[in-house]
Amino acid sequence: MNDEPLARFSFETRVIYWRGPSPFFYAPIPELHVDELRQLARIVTYGWGMVPVDVQIGDVAFTTSLFPKDGGYLLPLKADVRRRTNITADDVIAIELTIQPPKR
Description:
By secondary structure, the chain is an alpha+beta fold.
């Protein structure tokens, strides 16, 4: 069985606070990675274009899913992750993102 990830991305992005029906903090994925993510989504999505990812921010590692929004992707930042990394809106953060092959 191959345990190699399908892709790894490293980037910096500015945290946004979305006041939509369910307020939440997100890290927008830089446009430079969107086309590759869109291609990978065809392989790994579990519905609605969601892309499961492993994420590293500082010393904090977690698993979540990117979701498509307005032609790009957003990485949700749960309250626990933000508390452990001391992140809030407008912070510029460094992210390591890994996409694993789908589990069969």
